[in-house]
Amino acid sequence: MNEEFFKEFHIASINGDKKWHSLKVNVLLQNTEAKQPSINAFLGARYSRSADSIVDIAKEIYESGKDASKKLEAIFYNYGHKSVGDMADVFLTLENIPIFVAQRFFYSNPVHAGQERSTRYQDFSKPKFVRFPDSIKVSRKVQDGYEDLMHLALKYYSDLKDETEKAFISYFKVTNDVNEKSALKARVFDTVRYFLPIGLQTSMGVLMSARAWAERISYYRASKFEIERELGELIYNLLMGTENLKNQGYIPEADGLIRHTEADSTRKASTEAILEIISNYRTSDIPFELFVSPNRDPSAELIENYSLLINPYSKLILGEDEFENVKKKVSEIIFQNHNHHHQLGNVGQSGSYLISGIADYGAIKDLIRHRSFEKFIPLFEEELDFDKEMEREAKDMFRLCDYLEIPEFQALREKYSKNMLDYYSRVKKWYKLLQKEASKDISNEYGRYVLNHGYRVFYKFYGSFDDIAYTISLRTRNGGHIAYRKLTRDWLKALNILDPIWSG
Which residues, other chains included, contact 366 with Cβ-Cβ below 8 Å and sequence gap of 6+? Predict the structure, then answer.
């Protein structure tokens, strides 16, 4: 590992120094001289057991000369990990991670403040993406095929960019007006970005509590994805502080709150056991259509979510007695493995309204940022049988930008469709080679990296009236990507048919 401490910038950094990836994790420090987040957490803990003002408590601590961070660690075990760790905020940036890994982070962490680099502002002339680890023995043909797919997707992206721009200038009658040029640039990119693979590198900055970082490390350490296990170790070493960094003067902000980060495999264990039970029952195909419904049975949602990991485009068929029997068996597994320290994750989420359907990856990527939504998207789950995704016909694996629905763009649309069809036909052939040579976990991970922003994804979003009204209001307004604007508009139409409360 390479470690650096930039005291003047309040930043400590660590990277893995591996040939197959260029992961780098940075922590943006609040105070280079003290463990400020730990101190803040300690003051908060004291505050909850005192009648004094926070100013008086802080004055007492600082004037006594006591080390607040050490005092925090002393009460840490009495107070409990979560309540104290929630009050210590730590700001990290995760650099050079696959776009898919960034989305999985947003998907599975409902409480965070974070930003990812927008693809609108990236240079894709020299694409960067993770390679196969040295420890994974696959043939040169598989490795070259993987890289060829990345470059092919970006070739289609590049080839159609200028042609799309010319067609849009003509149709939208774009002048030299600054606003019109800005809108043109956004529209063109939003159309051609459908070719961008989700295995391309991106970076993100996230502010989360020490508790949330500790949980993320635990889940990364148990992840089936190689890149996430690497990332987990880098985050842990940075937040705990290596000897090298400490010798450079780095003071870890919340190391006392990041200790209990053993690999957490409870979700993996319960999912495998539950899938073994429900895989014995019949299924039927799910139609590709929008579905909205209020107040569905949460236990039915839970069982259905597990079944979607077997095949996200089918529905489990259970009789009344069978359903009750399955629920009892599932209940035993869940309460054997899960408690307040080991939660179910997204598979157990449901809410007032359910909205489910099919959308392109790009639209899903934008919508999972709405942290008030509960959500379940099989593609983002490690336990998904990804082979089922690859069994679909190539023509059913993608959609195109809604601008291309305009009749005047028919010829352009045909070129997009032809290239997409060619791309996914090649993806399917390459994936079959990968299956023969690599483990299922590696196939599941690297198979996802070659998918692009046009890939068709099954989704389930849950939200209260307020959550959904907020999202529709925000996302249907001018300025954003047309795909999620149209999608949320379709949500509103369907909700209005369901209930006139939405008619306003």
Answer: 475, 480, 481, 484
Residues whose CB falls within 8 Å of the CB of residue 188, separated by 6 or more in sequence, listed in order: 161, 164, 165, 168
pLDDT number for residue 70: 64
Measured in degrees and rounded to the nearest 5, phi and psi for residue 443 equal: -60, -40
With H, G, I as helix, E, B as strand and everything else as coil, classify residue 427: helix
Tokens of 299: 């236990």
pTM exceeds cut of 0.70:
yes
Residue 391: predicted pLDDT: 95
Q: What is the pLDDT of residue 72?
A: 58
Q: Which residues pair with 353 in a beta bridge?
A: 294, 463
Residue with more model confidence, 78 or 142: 142
Nearest by Cα to 483 from 359, 356, 358: 359
Banded model confidence at residue 87, pLDDT cuts 50, 70, 90: confident
CA nearest to 183, candidates 173, 195, 196, 197: 173
Residue 348 burial (CB count, 10 A): 17
Structure tokens at 272: 């495998």
What gap in Å lies between CA 498 and CA 484, rounded to an integer?
Answer: 21
Angle at the Cα of 334 from the Cα atoms of 332 and 339, rounded to 5 degrees: 120
Cα separations in angstroms, 304 against 95, 274, 310 = 35, 11, 10
CA distance 153 to 146: 11
Q: Contact 39/69 with Cβ under 8 angstroms?
A: yes
Task: Identify whether the C-beta of residue 236 lies closer than 8 Å to the C-beta of residue 134.
Answer: no
Q: Residue 444 phi/psi, 5° resolution?
A: -65, -35
pLDDT surpassing 60 at residue 80: no
Cβ-contact 129, 99 below 8 angstroms: no
Map tokens 């985050």 to a residue: 235
- Give 204's strand partners: 94, 116
The rounded percent of the chain whose pLDDT value lies above 70 is: 96
- Residue 373 DSSP code: -
The greatest distance separating any two alpha carbons of the chain, rounded to the nearest whole angstrom, comes to: 77
Angle at CA of residue 303, ends 215 and 212, nearest 5°: 10
Q: What whole-number distance in Å separates Cα of residue 52 and Cα of residue 32?
A: 29
- Residue with the two structure tokens 């006594």: 64
- Reading across the β-sheet that carries 353-360, which strands appear in turn? 291-294, 353-360, 456-463, 374-376
